[in-house]
Amino acid sequence: MRVDILTLFPSMFAGPFGASITKRAVDNGILDIHLTDFRDFSFDKHRHVDDSPFGGGAGMVIKPEPLYRAMRFILAQTKAYASHRRILLMDPSGTVFTQDKAKELATFDQLIFICGHYEGFDARIYALADESISIGDFVLTGGELPAMVITDSVSRMLPGVLGDSDSAPTDSFYEGILGYPQYTRPREFEGMCVPDILLSGDHARIRAWRREQSLRLTKEKRPDLLQNVNLTKQDRDFLASINS
Fold first, then answer.
1. Residue 2 catalytic?
2. Which entry of 65, 131, 152, 171 is annotated as an active-site residue?
3. Sheet strands (E) in 152-193
4. Among candidates 96, 180, 80, 186, which has minimal Cα distance to 135?
C-alpha cells in the first residue's frame, strides 16, 4: 500500500513511522510512505499557505491553491493507483474513525491524507477528498496525529505486517467488541493465578472462554458496542446470564 500525506510538518512523522511495526512494514516493502510539504506548492516567495478569513474572525485559514497544486502533483505521479485510491481529509466534522473503517481502508492500494492546521480549511478544499475523517470529539492542533493513528491502524490489517497472522483478529474492536484478558508466565504472581482453562490444552474450550470474556468485558465497560455486533444465540444467552 502507498500512503501519501500532505502536511506542513513532515518532520512530525519521523518518530512514529520510524519505529515498531510501521517501520518494519516500510522496511519489508508492505507500506510505501511519502510525505509532501504543501508549503512547497505555495505561489509567493514567502511560501504562504494561509490567510485571514473573509467576513472576519480569529485565526488563519488554509488557502486552496497550495493544496490543489500539491494534490495534482501527487495524482500525476501515482496514476497507477487511480482506480483504487482513497483521499482522506483529517477534519473534526468528519466521520468518526472505527475498526470497520480501518478494514475498509486496508482494501485500497493508495491512501492520501490531507492534514490541516490553524483554524481550518478554505471550504473549497473539501472537494479534493473522497471523505472527511475524525478520530474523536476533541480538539487537536492539526491533522498530523490523526493521520498517524489511522495509518498505524490500517497497516495492521495488511497481510504480512504483523508477525503472527492471527494477531489482528484478536485485537480489541476487530470484531466490534473488546479483547479478552491475556496472561503469560509466571502462572502465579502475588497470589494472582492464570485461569486453569488456559492451561488445559483444550483449544475449543479456550476459544469459548475467550469469547465469553470479551463479551463480559464489553458489557461491563462498553455496552454501547454490543448494539452493532452480530451476536450468535450462544452469545446472547451468555450475556443474558450475566448478573441474572
1. no
2. 171
3. 188-189, 192-193
4. 96
For the chain, what is the mean pLDDT?
93
- Burial per residue of 66-105, b for 16 or more beta-carbon CB atoms within 10 angstroms, e otherwise: bbbebbeebbeebeebeeebbbbbbbbebeebebebbeeb
Kindly name the residue from 91, 144, 146, 156 that is annotated as catalytic.
156
In the residue annotation, 211 being an active-site residue is answered as no
- Cα separation, 220 vs 231, in Å, equals 16
Which residue of the set 65, 109, 119, 175 is catalytic?
119
**Would you state the cell numbers that stand for residue 126, as one nine-digit string?**
473539501
Higher model confidence: residue 243 or residue 87?
87
* 37 tagged catalytic: no
Whether pTM exceeds 0.90: no
Assess whether 156 carries a catalytic annotation.
Answer: yes
The single-letter code of the amino acid at 82 is A
Catalytic hit among 4, 50, 85, 92: 92
8-state DSSP, 45: T
For residue 244, what are the contacts with CB-CB under 8 A and spacing of at least 6? none
Element (H, E) at 71: helix 64-77
C-alpha cell at 244: 441474572
Bridge partners (DSSP) listed for residue 111: 3, 86
Write the CB contacts of 230 (distance below 8 Å, at least 6 apart in sequence). none
